[in-house]
Amino acid sequence: MATRVLAAPPPGSGLKPVVGDPGLPLVGNTLRVMRRPFEVSRERYDLFGPVSWSWLLGQRTVTVQGPEAAEAVLVNRDKAFANGPAWSFFIGPFFTRGIMLLDFEEHLHHRRIMQQAFTRQRLRAYQETMAPSIGKGLDAWVPGRGFKVYDHVKQLTLDLATDVFMGVDLDRAEADRINGAFVDAVRAGTAYVRFPVPGLRWHRGLRARKTLEEFFRTHLPAKRRDGGGDLFAALCAAETDDGHRFTDEDVVNHMIFALMAAHDTTTITLTTMAYYLARHPEWQERLRDESEALGKPVLEPADLDAMTGIDAVMKEALRLVSPVPALPRKAVKDTEVLGFHIPAGTTVVVPQLTNHRMPDVWPDPDRFDPDRFGPDRREDKAHKYAWSPFGGGAHKCIGLHFAGMQVKSIMHQWLLRYRWSVPGRYTWPLDTTSLPSPKDGLPVHLERLP
Ligand code: HEM
User: Which superkingdom is the protein from (predicted)?
Assistant: First the structure.
């Protein structure tokens, strides 16, 4: 391995240079990092320490490992790191002006308005709207062997998005058209060919973006007029105390982004929970007992905190498989992380996926052990950023309570309806080349409970 310095620190600054290895010509270390993230990150940590550089996805990228470095980048005290130029590289054309792509003053302005759509009162309304749709979606599952959890959960969360996010009555064909556009927009972010060739991902993504824009623009006037208990209506109505509101264009952009931010992340969380609950039937039974003991077919807002088993398994699933595996930033001026010199223009990545499995922070890090979040252990308290699947700082996930509510509501109803299992020696083939997901869709034996 050829070890090189990223850039010499300014003389007299007292800063250390970032050391790393460029990797292979053209591809750098991209394929190794994508295919074997856990092994490669441990190897690099041992070799270079918490801050190192490499060529990744065609960019000179500094990777910061461990909670301390994650905190420095995400809290971003001297405003050296920007989201827009970093995230745009992946999702820019499809999620134009999504809130995560805005920075500094402008971001804060939008975030303050958006927060009005995520108040406690709004969340209660979303939960109530969602409950019957979850039941309907789960009842439609056909039990048997080879039931692909990932595909079914993805469909379920997409259908829920139609109710809870859009609140628009769509027939099946129209719902499928919008869901399809949405899936194409998301997929385009991980296209290999990153310019529009008809039939390929990038092109389909651009077409999908147009479809989604037209859809939301068409329904917007009625939403503004009639309101409702959905996110679309909430964004239309959102207003800060000093009277700031979203324009029509803002609402369209934020709706498209929020759908994306909410959908794959909750799908991955539920699929990971289902995988470990299939591998650990004792935990599945423990959670089912808890849900049965509650004595209610659907969770109500006041029940969310009481579901401690589901909560621990959800946290452990988010630790083992972080749905957003890496948080990229672009340095907009010379700065430092843990005393290492980061020159302006560098892409900096916080690798959530591997940070959550650092042996220095988590005992036996690859083991599924939800009790590590129990009151007597609280291993997540090792550092404020030890467990940070929702990010941190100004861009911390605005939907984190929504996500918890949705995941718990679905899991509760699922446990009451079905038992599921995998063969004893099955381990899932986790694809980590994009957002993490099982290559085989996670086939389980799904049995309906009497
Ligand atoms: C388990 C589920 C989820 C996970 C793991 C997750 C994770 C994240 C992460 C890590 C970020 C920060 C990205 C960064 O700093 O670059 C983020 C931002 C965001 N998330 Fe989530 N998310 C989840 C669910 C949701 C849901 C359900 C919604 C909406 C209802 C949502 C809406 C957003 C929005 C709007 C942002 C951007 C916030 C900003 O830039 O100010 N997320 N999410």
Answer: Bacteria
